[in-house]
Amino acid sequence: MKLYNTLSGKNEEFRPLNPAVVTYYSCGPTVYDYAHIGHARTYIFADILERVLRFNGFKVKRVMNITDVGHLTSDADSGEDKMEKGAKREKKSVWQIAEFYTNDFYEMLKLLNIRRPENITKATEYIPQMISLIKELEKKGFTYKTGDGLYFDTSRLTDYGKLTGKSFKDLVSSLKAGIRVEQVEGKKNITDFALWKFTPFRVIRQMEWESPWGKGFPGWHIECSAMAMAILGETIDIHTGGVDHIPIHHTNEIAQSEAATGKPFVRFWLHAGHLTVEGEKMSKSLGNFIRVAELAAKGYQPLALRYLFLTASYRREMNFTLAAFEGAQAAYLNLREIMAILKDSSRKAGRENLSVGKAVKAGNFRQAFTEAVSDDLNLAKALAVTWETVKSNLSPGDKYELLLSFDEVLGLDLKSAENDLQKAIPDNIRELVMKRQKLRAEKKFAEADEVREKIEKSGFEVIDTEKGTSVKKK
Ligand code: AMP
Ligand code: ZN
Fold first, then answer.
1. CA geometry: angle 149, 153, 159, nearest 5 deg
2. Are 265 and 377 in the same domain?
3. Nearest CA to 142 among 86, 191, 104?
4. CATH (domain of 225)
5. Any idea which positions bind ATP (predicted)?
6. How far apart are CA 47 and CA 314, in angstroms?
7. Is 284 annotated as a binding residue?
8. At 34, is the secondary structure helix, strand, or coil?
9. Dist CA 390 CA 406 (whole Å)
């Protein structure tokens, strides 16, 4: 399978370092506030990547972290710790904030049918590993101390910033031009970053630990390196995150990990494009901060969001509009209804023997689907193959099985559709719908129209869309 590797800027053939198992790390959320539909997009992408690897027969060992300390309001080293800020805002302890928003994140995963990675690591539970890694960097001479922390000297590396595709000089000037990095007193280079921050004088922090350099807390970047290496080893196959992680967080993960081990840290870096809402960056102050649970409370299907994200490349920026979301929901509900009808018809028809021609056809659909998802997760194409399968003349039972197997990747929970088969539609009508579809597939349009009239006379409406056919009570 091919994956677009941010490190090389190319689609590359993916093969794990150890053929027996793919090691895969995903940067997790900072749990200081509710998860929103932007997070949903990034974690659906990360989930689908794991599903595609498994679909292609790989075993996967995956870690996702929960950032519950150390992520400052600026991605670099200035500003307040987001967790402490959340605790002040809600007059709760930092630990309560972490627990509450971690659960909120898990709830979102459940609503979107995102599987939880087998290893979930909380940063606060890996402080000793972070300290050991920093000690290693200190021993190798990569660190220096300032008034507020222990820093990594990026000028000691010749390839610092390689993930950005920019030279060190260009990276420095783009950081200087940007507002995201404020200069911290005592830092030698604008690109240097904190490995360990001291608890500031006269400040009471709820989360702090003793270390060889003084009481304080780890920098956000060292957290991910330490947790990834603790479970997956010094060189891992795949690492994911959002595009915003490229210039600072992931760049610094690479710098410190490779400085400590002398080995490549990650072989494939994959990044999800951001989601905007009605053309704007999501933020509470703009009032366009949308949570998945809110959509569900308004009666929308959360999995329609998953469907919507499948329609575009994971790498591109995507703009969420209510109209596009409702369109995705209509298509998704249509697909569920088709699944329900297929299940029902196949149950009634019993097991048919697959003719050679149809077996070849089913095999071709499966191959086309596999090729699409293996082409850097071309999910829009995979969805198109799904609909072609729906419209084909395969038997209901074969279609159903094939679509369920596609759903191992798509994650649209199509299996449960059999439960929401509209009770209001009687068996004989459903049979007529299937009969008409078959006739249409065989291009017997006059006969198909007769069947349609019969259905309509019985008080039901047949709706044909590009995506397939459904039936409703008039
Ligand atoms: P955070 O909780 O801010 O650390 O973000 C967790 C993950 O969600 C990161 O990989 C971010 O890149 C990603 N993320 C945050 N906001 C968005 C957004 N609007 N669209 C897509 N991904 C996002
Ligand atoms: Zn991370």
1. 145
2. no
3. 191
4. 3.40.50.620
5. 284
6. 12
7. yes
8. coil
9. 12
